[in-house]
Design a protein that fits this description.
The chain has helices spanning about 1-15, 20-40, 45-50, 50-55, 60-70, 80-95, 105-120, 130-135, 145-155, 160-165, 170-180, 185-210, 230-245, 255-270, 275-290, 305-320, 320-330, 330-345, 355, 370-385, 390-395, 400-410, 410-420, 425-440, 450-460, 465-475, 480-495, 495-505, 510-520, 525-535. By secondary structure, the chain is an all-alpha fold. One of its GO terms (cellular component) is cytoplasm.
């Protein structure tokens, strides 16, 4: 059925201009509705519809190109109907090529293939007239957002299209004019248009200036090198204006405001131009006051929080003296852990209460496995930056948000999720860093209050049982020094911990084997042996 409809669409678009452009508008409108319907259908039907080979075979793109480049020679021609046809044309291209954020990965890939087919045609000299007419509609109120949607899909599909956009006048003229508010657009489309502009400029930085492909993961802790300073200078007015929009969060839509930090940090590379304190305060204001949607799919294959964590880590490393205190005092660090706990809770099918069970964050869109690792590294960095007592206060605060999130990192469910698509080294690092953070309340510098509250939370969240399980199930003997040390501390302070260890030793063969390997196997760390003997002594 879909094949027959696409063939009929091509035929109608070829002959209708000679009759009535209204027929073309209605045909394109049906095509757009079908795109929306198939995205809500089964994955099999959706993949069958978004098939570039089928679309090419039915000659859909040549028919659309001919439609909007045909001269209007008829005396009875209606320019309003023709303009409406152009509007539906841009909407059709967006419907076929735009990979919306709600699509699962397999359908996202299907749409990107269609976008690639369209991109290659637009780059063909035979389609130059079609391309010019299409881009020429950008200043038309109802078209700019749809043109950006199609561009978003096409630049995802091939760096060649990003290069084409970059080399022309579109960035410095149309896109910059849109960001400056000099192009009239539908009020309902403005937020989305600005957000798409941010995504497109970000991708151009990634593809053209850093020369990374779509699957290369950006890590701001690496030294990013702009490959061509002249190209960077061309894009700098756009990134600079986006930065100005961020500083007035009421102007920028919430999701785009959240996206900005990643764009600007990558654009600046090693040269971080904004005042760290001011930037952290602004980001905190955006996240707190706008109640922004954290669930955003980036063109980087990771979650929104990843970008924010990387940027904050970057700022802390550039100027720790100014940024660390601001990060904690502004509440932004607390917000990160609050959102992380929400993400973790969404991964649990059997929740502890109804409040948890209604959270339906898509798997790993909020934050990736690498993002979890980086947040732990950032947290450890803050503990070490002479801010331990402030961090400890967050760790043991009444809502216990940070503590609960850390305890979930040691749970069987989450460690198994971590292992699905990541290396064992990442799981090892996450477990070790989590244990390192849990060790701080046992430091000689902490007060009795910190220690008592920590022990209370350890008991509430079954830390000793989780700790023993992940240590013996996931860590090799040479990586157990920190977890074994934490077990020793808990066994010293808590009778319940001693009881749990005793019961598990009597009933769990795997735990007995683990301690046997620690005591009798090859072990170069005297601390592991000391902590093991200390545990058994307790």
């Amino acid at each position: 059925m879909s094949h027959e409809f696409l063939e009929l669409t091509s035929i109608i678009l070829n002959i209708a201009p000679a009759l009535d452009y209204t027929i073309c508008c209605e045909t394109l409108m049906i095509l757009i509705i079908l795109c929306e319907s198939y995205e809500d259908a089964s994955p099999l039907l959706c993949q069958a519809w978004y098939d570039p080979v089928r679309i090419d075979k039915c000659q859909v793109w040549p028919a659309i190109a001919q439609l909007i480049t045909t001269s209007f020679k008829s005396e009875n021609s209606n320019i309003e109907i023709y303009n409406e046809t152009l509007m539906y044309t841009t909407a059709t291209m967006a419907a076929l090529a735009y990979p919306s954020q709600c699509l699962p990965d397999e359908l996202l890939e299907a749409k990107i293939k269609v976008a690639n087919s369209l991109a290659l045609k637009l780059l063909d000299s035979n389609y130059s007239a079609f391309r010019e007419v299409w881009l020429g509609q950008f200043r038309t109120p109802k078209c700019s957002s749809n043109i950006l949607k199609a561009m978003y899909g096409m630049r995802l599909s091939t760096p060649r299209f990003s290069a084409f956009i970059f080399d022309g006048s579109f960035l410095s003229n149309e896109l910059l004019s849109l960001l400056r508010g000099q192009i009239t657009t539908e009020e309902s489309d403005l937020d989305e248009a600005i957000e798409l502009s941010i995504h497109i400029s970000t991708a151009i930085i990634k593809q053209i200036m850093l020369q990374y492909d779509n699957n290369t993961r950006i890590d701001l802790r690496d030294q990013l090198t702009i490959k061509d300073d002249r190209k960077f200078e061309k894009l700098q007015p756009i990134t600079g204006h986006i930065a100005q929009l961020t500083m007035s969060s009421q102007v920028l839509p919430p999701r785009a405001a959240c996206a900005l930090h990643l764009v600007y940090a990558i654009a600046c590379g090693a040269k971080f131009l904004l005042n760290p304190e001011e930037y952290i305060d602004t980001l905190s204001t955006i996240f707190v006051q706008s109640e922004c949607d954290f669930i955003v799919r980036f063109p980087f294959h990771h979650g929104l929080l990843d970008g924010l964590i990387m940027l904050i880590f970057h700022i802390v490393q550039v100027d720790p003296q100014k940024s660390v205190g601001t990060l904690i005092d502004s509440g932004l660090f607390y917000i990160l852990w609050q959102q992380l706990r929400a993400a973790f809770r969404s991964l649990y099918p059997n929740s502890l209460n109804e409040e948890i069970s209604i959270i339906t964050t898509p798997d790993w869109i909020l934050i990736s496995r690498d993002g979890i690792h980086q947040l732990l590294q950032l947290t450890l960095e803050l503990f070490l930056q002479v801010r331990m007592h402030k961090c400890l206060s967050l760790l043991i605060q009444p809502e216990s948000i940070m503590f609960e999130a850390l305890s979930l990192m040691l749970s069987k469910e989450l460690t198994e999720q971590l292992d699905v698509k990541s290396s064992s080294s990442l799981t090892n690092e996450v477990i070790t860093l989590t244990c390192n953070i849990f060790m701080f309340p046992f430091s000689i510098e902490t007060s009795e209050t910190f220690l008592e509250r920590t022990l209370e939370l350890c008991q509430r969240y079954d830390i000793i049982q989780k700790l023993l399980w992940v240590t013996m199930a996931h860590l090799s003997t040479d990586r157990v020094e920190v977890p074994v040390g934490l077990v020793a501390q808990l066994s010293y302070y808590q009778e319940s911990a001693r009881k749990t260890i005793s019961e598990m030793l009597m009933n769990d063969v795997q735990l007995c084997q683990f301690y046997s390997n620690v005591l009798y196997g090859t072990n170069e760390s005297e601390f592991i042996l000391c902590d093991t003997f200390f545990t058994f002594t307790n």
